[in-house]
Specification:
CATH architecture of chain A: Orthogonal Bundle
CATH superfamily of chain B: P-loop containing nucleotide triphosphate hydrolases
Strand order of the largest sheet of chain B: 6-7-8-3-9-10
Strand content of chain B: 25-35%
Shape of chain B: globular
Largest interface: A-B, 21 and 29 residues
Helix content of chain A: over 70%
Distance between the termini of chain A: 45 Å
Strand content of chain A: under 5%
Oligomer: heterodimer
Distance between the termini of chain B: 38 Å
Shape of chain A: globular
Number of domains of chain A: 1
CATH superfamily of chain A: MetI-like
Number of helices of chain B: 9
Number of strands of chain B: 10
Structural class of chain B: alpha/beta
Number of domains of chain B: 1
Structural class of chain A: mainly alpha
Number of strands of chain A: 0
Radius of gyration of chain B: 18 Å
Largest sheet of chain A: none
CATH topology of chain A: MetI-like fold
């Protein structure tokens, strides 16, 4: 034991010696960085614990979570968030039951209509207009709906880009190229302002759905490119094997191409989902009360005027938790997909 | 005797002037084994791949199991042929995202619309015959090359084919793994399966084949019985080739 400590001492001393005596410049740099990090930490901790006034967060927690959703009905979005968290935990820890493991994707897909139903009401629940949806619930709803719609749309675009039919091939690449060369905020403005003009008289889509449509149109172009990369990574011999077994084009696409390309594209797709979650904050500019929008409206309240830093730090933490959770989920999914398959 | 394959003057060129196949004609009777030999680039693979429509050809006529195709490449007829002709590749070409059993049952269930349970049972029976039924739930990358190739053979057999095509099935294997695949092929030949085999395995060809076809530069140099081909080949070119093989 004592020799161990001795060894450690010698090691430490020699380390210090080399640092101070032999490399004075690197020693200086080390001290400089260390001291600046420590002072930064001290300043921010001091601010967080003694100077900041967190009442702006505490008293508005339900606003951040549900927006102006009627208080009596707030159990509905809460229930949805709880269900989502529960399924996320199941996914991370690996479902024990075999049928659940096999159908986990469908469980995830099922959460989206469940969320819409719970938020919107009807069928025995009191209907709540989409103007009252907001906060974290709305952010997650827009993200999950957009992903659910843009994934199949993106796959179709990617397949269309490889189609042997000239018109389909060209129009798919045209669509992808156009959407990728327009900034997202322009697409969102298009969704809010122009979609109503294109619709026939009498038909109206509310703001939330217009946002979801705009996000879907935008993200699917990027997803299509990610899937295309996956498709290109499949060796030609796979197609030959599938052909020689007599599978037709549709069957080859469904059983061979899509599963293999999705697996390759998974990391890139995770990127898209995280990006999309963060980009939903742009909707605050267009008047939707999602997380950032709620933050802005709270800051506009004279009671909380000037407490920008608290609100934005709080929002940053919420976004950070959401994104980390998503990254973790996808890592888990990647692991599950690659176990024993040699990828 | 009924013919499973009649090829008449098959000609194909990849680029102008160079013939991959040059007037190839052959006739394979039911239950017989044809071994195709030749130096690399002689058109062996191209020939075997035209039979199930993986390659087109420019001229001539093919009659596979009574289905006639010509250079027009009728998609529907090709599909019909593929349902009745199995193929085994040099690189196995198993589907890496499916388990062994799923690899095997994919086509019978979806192409032939057979009953799921019946197909699974049949697949397990075939795997047991090859001695690899314990691997049914594994993925291809967990298996050795020889095992993967036997799975590929089972995958072709699961469609109950009337003709099996082998494109250098042992060329990608370790030397000590070659025999397990050749043994599987011997069993098939003894069971009366019609087979066309592209291979460099002389012993296998001597033992199993009913006819040997020697190709060079896309031309059929000779078709003869293995006894004659390996002891007293009629052409100078074939003898040269066999000498080369012997040296290796």
């Amino acid at each position: 034991m004592s020799t161990k400590i001795n060894k450690f001492k010698i090691f430490f001393l020699s380390k210090i010696k080399t640092c101070i005596l032999l490399k004075p410049f690197s020693f200086f740099l080390n001290i400089l960085f260390l001291s600046s990090i420590i002072s930064l930490l001290l300043v921010s901790l001091n601010w967080i614990f003694f100077k900041a006034n967190w009442s702006v967060i505490n008293s508005n927690l339900s606003l951040f979570a549900f927006g102006s959703y009627p208080p009596n009905e707030q159990w509905r979005p809460s229930l949805w968030l709880v269900v989502l968290t529960f399924i996320a935990l199941i996914t991370i820890y690996g479902p024990k039951k075999k049928w659940l493991r096999k159908n986990l994707v469908f469980v995830w897909i099922g959460t989206v209509p469940l969320g819409i139903f719970l938020l919107k009401g009807g069928f025995g629940l009191i209907p709540v207009m989409s103007q009252n949806w907001g906060g974290l619930t709305l952010t997650i709803l827009i993200t999950s709906c957009s992903i659910l719609f843009s994934l199949p749309f993106g796959i179709l675009l990617a397949l269309g880009r490889r189609s042997s039919l000239f018109v389909i091939r060209k129009s798919c690449s045209f669509y992808i190229d156009i959407l990728r060369s327009i900034p997202l905020i322009a697409v969102l403005f298009f969704g809010q302002l122009l979609i109503p003009l294109f619709l026939p008289y009498g038909l109206e889509i509310d703001r939330v759905w217009r946002a979801i449509i705009a996000f879907t149109l935008f993200v699917s172009a990027y997803i299509a490119e990610d899937i295309r990369g996956g498709l290109q990574s499949i060796p030609k011999t796979q197609l030959e094997a599938a052909n020689s077994l007599g599978l037709n084009k549709y069957q080859i696409t469904r059983f061979i191409l899509i599963p293999q390309s999705l697996r390759v594209a998974l990391p890139a797709l995770t990127n898209q989902v995280i990006g999309l979650l963060q980009n939903t904050s742009l909707m605050s500019i267009l008047g939707l009360m999602e997380l950032i929008g709620i933050g802005r409206s709270i800051l506009a309240n004279p009671e909380f005027i000037g407490q920008y830093i608290e609100v934005y730090i709080w929002l940053a933490i919420v976004y950070w938790i959401l994104c980390t959770l998503m990254a973790f989920l996808s890592k888990q999914l990647e692991k599950k997909m690659s176990t024993n398959k040699g990828y | 005797m009924e013919s499973v394959l009649i090829a008449k003057n098959i000609t194909k060129s990849f680029s102008k002037g160079i013939n991959a196949l040059n007037n190839v004609s052959l006739n394979l009777e039911k239950g017989k084994v044809l071994v195709v030999m030749g130096p690399s680039g002689s058109g062996k693979s191209t020939l075997i791949r035209t039979i199930n429509g993986l390659e087109t050809f420019d001229d001539g006529e093919l009659n596979v199991l009574g289905i006639k195709i010509d250079s027009n490449f009728d998609e529907k007829k090709i599909q019909k042929i593929r349902r009745r002709v199995g193929m085994v590749f040099q690189q196995f070409n198993l589907f890496p995202h499916l388990t062994i059993l799923e690899n095997i049952t994919l086509a019978p269930i979806n192409v032939q619309k057979r009953n799921k349970n019946e197909v699974k049972e049949f697949g397990m029976y075939l795997l047991a015959q090859m001695g690899i039924d314990s691997h049914a739930k594994k993925y291809p990358n967990q298996l050795s090359g020889g095992e993967q190739q036997r799975v590929a053979i089972v995958r072709a057999l699961a469609l109950k084919p009337e003709l099996l095509l082998f494109d250098e099935p042992t060329s990608a294997l370790d030397p000590e793994r070659i025999n397990e695949v050749l043994d599987a092929m011997r069993i098939l030949a003894n069971q009366g399966m019609s087979m066309i085999v592209v291979t460099h395995e002389i012993d296998f060809a001597k033992e199993v084949s009913d006819k040997v076809l020697f190709l060079d530069n896309g031309k059929v140099i000779e078709i003869s019985s293995p006894e004659i081909f390996f002891s007293n080949a009629s052409h100078e070119r074939s003898r040269k080739f066999l000498n080369q093989l012997d040296k290796n």
